[in-house]
Amino acid sequence: MLSNLTLVGCYDRAAVPDRAERQRILLRSAADNLRRMAFFGLTERQADTQLLFERTFAGIRFRRRFVQLNSTHASREPMSDAELAAVRRLNRLDVALFRFASRLFDARVQWARRQRSAGTGSWRVHAAAARNTAADDDNLDSDNYNGDDELEDEDDEQEQ
């Protein structure tokens, strides 16, 4: 879990009774925590993940290049449009965080490539890096989540 649950009273839903507001707080907290991490990678971007790792932890080099495998067992299973829509709806906060993480990852990869070309230092999380992605915070809610499907979610929870 990337979010700081204490911001919403941990599991006490009465602390922040508005579900949409609680989810927005958790999403923003997860984005803040991700931004402060010295390193994270994306499974879908193995070569770039390796580059960032090696730039972040200067002096550590992998003996082999990472291999990108995009085929999974799940990708071979057919899924209807309705099933796909349901998965996206139920995972909308994860999707929004992934989009944010992808933008942050892209910014860090661009930096790492410039550093590699210039033959200089390793990545460090600092104020300038945070400022470069702070504008992305405004896109968190508009990316994929606006809280307008709360009634449907409560029905989903009751079914489980």
Structure characterization notes:
With 160 residues, this protein is mainly α. The chain has one domain (5-159). The protein has helices at 19-36, 46-56, 81-90, 92-118, 127-134, 139-144, 150-159. It is flat, with a radius of gyration of 19 Å.
Name some characteristics of this structure.
160 residues, mainly alpha, 7 helices, flat, disordered C terminus
Rg value: 19 Å
Could you describe the largest sheet, including whether it forms a barrel? none
- Secondary-structure-based class equals mainly alpha
The low-confidence runs, each spanning 5 or more residues with pLDDT under 50, are: 125-135, 141-160
Q: Tell me, what's the shape?
A: flat
Number of domains: 1
Oligomer: single chain
Strand content: under 5%
Helical proportion?
A: 55-70%
Number of helices: 7
Number of strands: 0
Separation, N- and C-terminal Cα atoms: 21 Å
Kindly report the average pLDDT value: 78
Secondary-structure element order, N to C: HHHHHHH
